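thought: fold this chain, then report.
action: predict
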Amino acid sequence: MSKKFSGNKPNKKDGWVEVGKCFFDSFGWTVFKMTKANNSGWSFFKISADEKVAVKANYRFSKNSETAEIGFKRDYLLLESGRPGLLSEVSKFL
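observation:
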């Protein structure tokens, strides 16, 4: 049996706002967003599992609303390759 990981919700005091929820692969996921002033269109996203899941329970990356460029690509690429259906679900919140 593979190890399970818990999603860690970000702290709202740090400016994170819940922007959506989705259901993928029998698990609930929550999408959080943080936008800072004077950040040239960049927003930060965190996708967090609502319960324990295999492999990875948290994904963090940024996206520029003006250029659609993805920053901090490591987690985005892991999401794209490991859970493409989840990426499709959360894309409507990005």
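thought: worth noting. The two ends are 33 Å apart (CA to CA).
final: tokens above.
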